[in-house]
Amino acid sequence: MSRLxxxxxxxxxxxxxxxxxxxxxxxxxxxxMLPALPQIxxxxxxxxxxxxxxxxxMIFVGxxxxxxxxxxxxxxxxxxxxxxxxxxxxxxGDLVSLFANDxxxxxxxxxxxxxxxASPKVVSIALIRDxxxxxxxxxxxxxxxxxxxxxPVLAPGLGQLVLMVSEWRSIFVIFLLLAVVLSIWFSVxxxxxxxxxxxRPMTLDYLINSSKEVLTHPTAMGYTLLSGIxxxxxxxxxxxxxxxLQQQYQLAEQFPIYFGGLxxxxxxxxxxxxxLLSRFGMQLLSVIALGSIAILSLLYxxxxxWFNGHPPLVTLICYLLLVFFSVGLLFGNLSALAMxxxxxxxxxxxxxxxxxSTLLGVLPGVIIGQLYNDTLYxxxxxxxxxxxxxxxxxxRLYRNSVGKVEPA
Length: 408
Hints:
By secondary structure, this protein is mostly helical. It has a single domain, classed as MFS general substrate transporter like domains (Growth Hormone, Chain: A, Up-down Bundle), CATH 1.20.1250. The protein contains 16 helices and no strands. It has helices at residues 10-23, 25-31, 37-43, 54-77, 79-98, 103-131, 134-148, 150-165, 169-189, 204-215, 218-248, 255-280, 282-306, 313-339, 346-370, 377-401. Helix 7 runs antiparallel to helix 12 and helix 13 packs antiparallel against helix 16 (377-401). It is globular, with a radius of gyration of 20 Å. The relative contact order is 0.15.
């Protein structure tokens, strides 16, 4: 059920598009940089190519910390000003990286970018939760993900195009211009969704008690843990996409095409998700997706071994297309399931859930990336372990929900 007056009108469409674009700034800030990693490493004299993965990792570290801050902040001052504050910080981080003269300063800018863009990522979840519940919330998030996924499809190509005519710093100029335009659009067109009487004081007691409520809620924490597992696997892919596709398989300038095509599988699944929800429900659909990736990884690992860690490219693309289709079924549904019981504390609930799931995913994502040895073993083995664990957790949560009616 929605409390918006125009579920299918122009106001609703603008709402979905605007929130999706704001949220997609995090994907743009990551994926557009992937083709530039070798150039960045060369400019800053990075000797170990795995160290350039910090360009991706640091933005997620900032994202993890920022998500906890903006959740309770949005409960106190409202959703709209919280997002605008974060976008301002993203712009500051963009400028720091743009004018950095050493790698540490550059990474500081990436951290600030993540800290800033955490705001639209986490507050948009609370904003949507202000207006929607249950399957309606999951559908909105699926539509939003459909738009969101266009960014990973196009971003590496954008980065590659910039590198053809300029150097990597020009990519940050594009980030800057987009952030300014989206901030103005949001400021002018988006109403505040948190009414004054529902705002919460940002006191220490409130933060402690609300956080404790979230952290001790078995359903919310169960699906937060699952979100962390999925995010960890996806972060591992982001760390390895450039070295595997561009270097190991020597795709060079074709890298953005392959990366975008794989990202499109997630977009396709988010479109299918809206229909599949009415048939299977969020819990069962999530279990099916988790099990599918675990089985795919179990079947693909012997192929990887047979070819000494370097199987034919066509087999890798088929494997990743199927994996990412299943991942697309998980992103929106797991977030909606974690937030479902937290509507009365949506801001801090979204902050804790998003921050914790990101934090939980950073470690396995970094481990998968740092274990890279010019073979597919780290990625496929990591996926098998992560999604097998996720399947066990998902089955437990699903069994506990049997007999309960999912909200409409």
